[in-house]
Amino acid sequence: MIKKADLEDREFKWGYSPSKGYYIGYKLTLIIDRRNRKPLLFLIHEGSPNDAKLFKEVMEELKRRRIARAGDVVLADKGYYSYRNYVMAISRFKVVPLIFPRKSFSLRRLLGMFSYPLEMFQRKSCDKLQFVRLVREFAGLIKNWEKFKAVRSIVAPLY
């Protein structure tokens, strides 16, 4: 059996799981089109970073490759849950984030966090209208997020 101490001087990235302990590994982020189930993007991350911390990088890559466009709905599981990610998705990336919430989720608290980005005041009023439309669409979808569990089960196989 190989121990962590035997491999520490090598350039491996370590992950940690409470049930398995330390391991050498990578995390694969796979983005799939829900309509045709074709892969759109995959990213490989060293070690085992938290999904919520990867959200910004994933969204930047989706925007850079013109996969996610303004007004699109982005469906993500609870691993990406973070109030900051909801706000960032709408205000910065202009998409509707349907990130499955956790038990402690408060829509009222989240809606209180939304405000126009300062740069919006220098732009046309259509940007403000788009922001309001995205927040309204988000609020409508997140209230009924459980309806989308079936969609997630199609694209994310259970192990």
Overall helicity: 25-40%
Tally of distinct domains:
1
Pattern of helices and strands: HEEEEHEHEHHH
**Helix-strand category:** alpha+beta
User: How many distinct beta strands?
Assistant: 6
Instruction: Tell me the β content.
Output: 15-25%
Instruction: Kindly report how far apart the N and C termini lie.
Output: 26 Å
Which descriptor suits the 3D outline? elongated
Question: What Rg do the Cα atoms give?
Answer: 18 Å
Number of H/I helices: 6
Nearest-integer average pLDDT: 83
Q: Main sheet, how many strands, which sense, barrel?
A: 2 strands, antiparallel
What does this structure look like?
- With 159 residues, the chain is of the alpha+beta class.
- Helices cover 38% and strands 19% of the residues.
- It has one domain.
- The chain is elongated.
Short description:
The mean pLDDT is 83.
Explain the layout of strands and helices.
Layout: H1 4-7, E1 14-17, E2 21-24, E3 26-32, E4 39-46, H2 51-64, E5 73-76, H3 83-91, E6 96-99, H4 107-113, H5 125-143, H6 149-155
Parallel strand pairs: 5-6
Antiparallel strand pairs: 1-2, 3-4
What key attributes describe this structure?
alpha+beta; 159 residues; 19% strand; 6 helices
